[in-house]
Amino acid sequence: MADTPEAIKKSVRTYMFVGGILFIGTIITVLVASVEALDVGEHGFDKWDCILGLTIATIKASLVAFIFMHLNHEKKAVYWLFASGLCMVCSLAGLTALAIFDPIHDPLFFGKESTTPKILASPSLR
Amino acid sequence: MEIPYVVTPRKDTGLFNSKIAIWLFLASEVMLFGGFFSAYVFLRLGADYPWPERTLPVLPGLINTFVLIGSSVTVVFAWASLKLRNWRMFQLFMGITVFCALIFMVLKGIEYNVKFHHQAVRLKDYTVMEGHLGYEKELDHNGNKVEENLIFIEASKLTYSTRRFHKPWVDEILTQAGHHNSKVVLAADVAVVTKEGQPAEVIAKAGEPLSAELLRRIEKTRLAASSHNSALRTASLREEWVKAHAANPDKKDWQIASGVNIDTAALAPKLLTEISTVAFNIEPPARLDFKPRDIKEADGQSRLRDDTVVDGKLLASPMVFHNVDAIDFQHLVMKAKEKGIDPEVAIENSWLIKNSPFAKEAWEWHQGEVAKLEERLIKEYGLDKSGKPKRVPTHKELYRIGWKDFAKKAEQQHGIKLSTMDALKEEFMGPNYDARNPHADQAHAEGEHVKETFPHFSLPREQIGFAAKFTPAWNTYYAIYFTITGLHGLHVIGGALVLAYYLFFGRKMYLENPEWLANRVEIGGLFWHFVDLVWIFVFPILYLM
Q1: Calpha distance B434→B479 (Å, rounded)
Q2: Which of B289, B421, B337, B328 is nearest to B53 (CA)?
Q3: Which of B4, B15, B81, B411 could join B90 via S-S bond, C-beta 3.0 to 4.6 A?
Q4: B168 within domain boundaries
Q5: What pLDDT, in 10s, does the model give residues B237-277?
Q6: Looking at beta carbons, which residues of chain B come within 8 Å of A124?
C-alpha cells in the first residue's frame, strides 16, 4: 500500500483517473439503455442488454474494489475473507437456481404438463 | 490500557486489527446483498405478471450514481490528506463526502415519497390503471386528508368481537353516527353467568349506548369467565388422566391418550358464560365510511380488521382518480394469450375501453403511435432473411400508455406543453398534473375529460381486483426494489454517520495519534466504497433493466 508521501501523491492521480472511468462507465450504461442507436440485440431490453449492463457494472465494481479498496495489493487474509463471502453467495444462488434449471425435472410429475415456458416449469415458480 | 494493533500490523495477519474486522463485516455484507440480488433474479424469472421493465425514473438514479462515485473519490482523498498530515484538506474532502450522502438520501426520499402517493389499481379483467386519487372535503379525526377511496355502507347493525375491538374505530363510528343523528345502542340484554352455579345476570341492558367502556366491561367479564373455565377444564383433564393411569397401569400415555377426555356434561353447569360477540343496532341506519384497508367489504355483511361485523347495504363507493396517468394492458394481454385470445380483441372488450371514452380515444391514438414506431423500425433496421422485421416494439411499448405517452398525446392534440424547467422537475417528481391539465376545472364542470392530459375517472368498486400504492404491496418488483434500496439507504446513513463522526470529532485524535485516525478513516472509507460498489449494481439492475 502507498505509505510514503510520494507514493500517496502518485496514487491520488490514479484515484482521479479511476473516478473518471467510473463516471464514463455510468454514462455508457445509461446511453446503451436509453439511446436506440446504441441498443444491442433486439429492440428494447433483452439478454444482450443485460449482459452488457452487468459487464460494465462488474468492471466498475472491480475498479472500486481493486483501486479504491486497495484489493490490488492486500494481505492474504483479506483475499481469503472476501473470496469466501463471494463463494458462499455464488454457491447458495447456484443451489436456488437448481429449482429452475433442474436437469432431471419431470414436467409431468404433477400430472398435467405445464403450459408455462420450460424455464418456469418448476412448480415452486408456477 | 493501550489497545494493541490499531496502528502497527499484527505479525500473523500482516494487518491492523480493525482492518480484519471490517473485511469480515464486508464479507458478511457481500452475502447479505448477494442474497437479495439472487432473490431479485428468481423473483423476476418466476413473476406471473409482466415485470415492470425500466419503470423507475433514470435521472435521479443517475445523479445518485454520480454522487456516490464522487463521494468514493473524495473519501479516498480524505484518507490520503490524513496520511499527508493535511487536516484542512481532510476536512474539505470528508465534508464533501458527507454532503454527497445527504444529497443521495434527499433524492431517495423524493423517489420514495412519489411512490407512496401514487395509486395503482388492477381491474378484475387485469387492466392496470395508475394515477392520483382526489381528497374528501372533510379531514379525518386525526386531521389528515382522506382520499376519495372510501367504502360506504348503510349500516344498521354492528357486531363487536369482545376479543379484539379497536378503540379508535369504536370512537370513529360513534362520531360518524353522531353526524347522521343516529344512535348506536345495544341490541339485546347481555345476560351472563358470572358466578359458578348462579343464574345468569344482566350486565348490560338493551338500549345502552355503544362506548369503548361498555365493550371493555363486557370484555372483562369474558376474560374472567375464560380464566375460570380454563382452570376447571384443566383440573378436569388432570383428574381424567389420573383415572386413566389407575385403570391402565401397564400402558403408555400415547396408548391411552385417545380415551382421556374432559367430561363436558359434568362440567357444563359449573362453567361461566364467555360472551364472544355483542351486537348493537344503529337507529336509524346511517351511512358509515371506512378506509379500504380497514374493511373486507361485501353487500349485506362486511367485516372490519378488528373482526367487527357491519350489517348493511354496500353503497356506491367509487375510487376517484383526479388524474389517471397510465393505462396498462400488459397484464391483460398476458392473461388473454394464456387463454388463446387475440390481445387486440381482449383490449377492445376490456371494461375500461367500453366504459371510458378517454381510454378508448387514448388506445386508438396509441395504436397509431405503435404503427408509426413499427414502420420506423422497419425503415431503419430492415427485415431479416425470412422477411420479418429485425426490430419490433417491446411488449411495454405495445400495450402500455404511460404518463409520457399521455403528455405526448396532449401536446399533439391540444398543444399542451411544459417549459424545460417544469419538464425537468417531472423527471424527479412525476407528472405535473396542474401544468398539464390547464383546463381541468372547466373540463370537470362540463363533464368533458378528453381535452385533459390526465383525465378524471371514477372507478366503481366492483371493478377493482387489487389496489395499492406503489409500495411493496403492489407487486414483487416493488417489494424487492424497496428491500434492496431501503437496505442500501440504511447503509448510506450508517456510513455517513461514522464518517461525519471522524470529521467533527476527529481533531483530538489527529493531534494525539494521526496514524490511528488515518487507519480509522481507511476503515470507514472501505465501508463507504462497499456502499458505492453495491449501488453500481443496484442502479443498472433496478433502473435500467
Answers
A1: 30
A2: B328
A3: B81
A4: yes
A5: 999 999 999 999 999 999 999 999 998 999 999 999 999 99
A6: 46
Q: Which of B66, B529, B541 sits opposite A68 (nearest CB)?
A: B529
The pLDDT assigned to A125 comes to: 43
Instruction: List the domain range (segments joined by +) for residue B446.
Output: 321-461
Residue found under cell 496502528: B7
**CB of A114 within 8 Å of any CB in chain B?**
no
B323, B132 Cβ separation under 8 angstroms: yes
Output the pTM of the full model. 0.85
Which segments within B315-446 are labelled E, that is strand? 319-328, 400-401
Number of domains in chain B: 3
Tell me which chain A residue has its CA closest to the CA of residue B49.
A126
Of all helices (H) and strands (E), which one includes residue B184? strand B183-186
Query: Which of residues B422, B438, B461 is at a domain's end?
Result: B461
Sign of CA dihedral B362, B365, B369, B370: positive
Pairing verdict, β B300-304 and B400-401: unpaired
- Which residues, given as ranges, of chain B have pLDDT below 70? 141, 440-450
**For residue A68, what are the CA distances in angstroms to A15, B100, B110, B352, B522?**
7, 17, 30, 54, 10
B27 lies within 8 A of chain A by CB = yes
Among B399, B133, B430, B449, which residue's Cα sits nearest to residue B292? B133
| A123 chain-B contacts, CB cut-off 8 A | none
